[in-house]
Design a protein that fits this description.
single chain, mainly alpha
Length: about 60
């Protein structure tokens, strides 16, 4: 188990928001497990930025 494993206790009871949170956990696990080459790091950080922006917009709505 990684440090970034989704647990049901993190659920907020809103399926789309919980799915977003699980997706964020998955991206962070991918980052944790990956080879840290410059190209990869830029790509995963861009993905995290895009994912977080979309997630927070949905959460605020």
């Amino acid at each position: 188990m990684t440090r970034f494993e989704w647990k049901s206790e993190y659920s907020v009871g809103n399926a789309p928001i919980d799915a977003d949170h699980q997706g964020l956990f998955a991206l962070v696990r991918e980052l944790e497990a990956a080879d840290m080459t410059d190209g990869f790091l830029d790509d995963i950080l861009w993905q995290l930025e895009q994912y977080a922006e979309g997630h927070f917009a949905r959460e605020e709505a």
